[in-house]
Amino acid sequence: QNQFAADLCRLFIVANIAWYALEIPFVRYFFMKYIGEANLPGRKELSGRVLNEEASKVTDRIKLEVKGHCATGQCDGWKNISKDHIIASVINAEYMTYLVNTFCITKERKNAENLLEIVLSQIKYFTEVLQVTVVAWCTDASGDGSKMRRLLVQRLPQIFVVDCWAHQINLVVGDIFKAASIQFKELLDDALEIIKWFNSHTRALGMLKDTMIVKLRKALCLILPVITRWTSHYLAVRRLIDAEHAFVQLLLHKVDQLLLCAGDKDDAKEKAAEVIRKLEQPGFFARLRRLADHLAPLAIATNLFQSDDTRLDIVLIALASLYHIFSDDSLDLSVRRAVLASLEKRWAKQDQAIFVLALVLNPYIRVSAFSRSSN
């Protein structure tokens, strides 16, 4: 019975099933009919005692895996579905990441001092309960996060503090669209307008997906990028490129039907005609491919930086690689200048010595990556 309750708790968590589902009569009927031998726990028992027991098992397993190791702590915040502000603490030890605790700080002031108290309590928890040695702490580059890291070093000078470089690269992408040439900005705006229009007109989207199945043998979703989804601008552009043949086929044979999808209002018809004109621009998809070529190295770096096994020496090598890539004269000058300036600005704010030391301590590289004239 205890094992059944524990597995049921895990099932509800991994399937994202609400606890109140246990109080739905048909759910209880289903379990009684097909699993009649087991005593089905109620919502309060499953989300209370059983959940607490499972959480304790997870903590014991984490402790067993990380005990005695050095670890990096991390924290970040978000709003959940109930609009509560949540802070989560994470540790990374031996190339594995573990979610440890979450805190609801909806009623608290969102400042660096309060964040510092949470971090200090977590360092104490990691040290005393999980029995690890915390050697570094990582946050994003928000004002509160940056100030908290400065305060943390004042309290615990033996700890290294670092920015989340996946977030930093996302900011570099933002700098591109602030400083890039008007042609690049307009191209991205056109791409987003096309995505929005098709996603908001179900009949047109259905026609596009039918054409995709014929031309590509599968239906692809058009991706609308959002700022909190790193790499989504690249993926949005890439998806349009992947669907190029379907768009071309649709424009060749069903333009009139696409216009009808807009409805009867004149402004809606004009919007549909505008979207079609954007798709029919000479060289539109060729220019999209060039835009994707500029965004791809940054998307790759972002995925590299947000992996569980990223090290400081990897960050430095990847940054050097990005600097080399965007020094290529074949790339758009405005994008090159924006990326190089952004990388230099963000690198200047780092504790550079620890990155260089990590690279020198890499037994496969040592000092071979540095110029002989480098200081």
TrEMBL record:
InterPro entries per UniProt: DUF659 (IPR007021), RNaseH-like_sf (IPR012337), Vacuolar_transposase_reg (IPR052717)
GO biological process entries: regulation of transcription by RNA polymerase II
Gene Ontology CC terms, in alphabetical order: nucleus
Residues in DUF659 domain copies: 41-191
Pfam families associated with the record: DUF659
Protein name, per record: DUF659 domain-containing protein
Origin species: Daedalea quercina L-15889
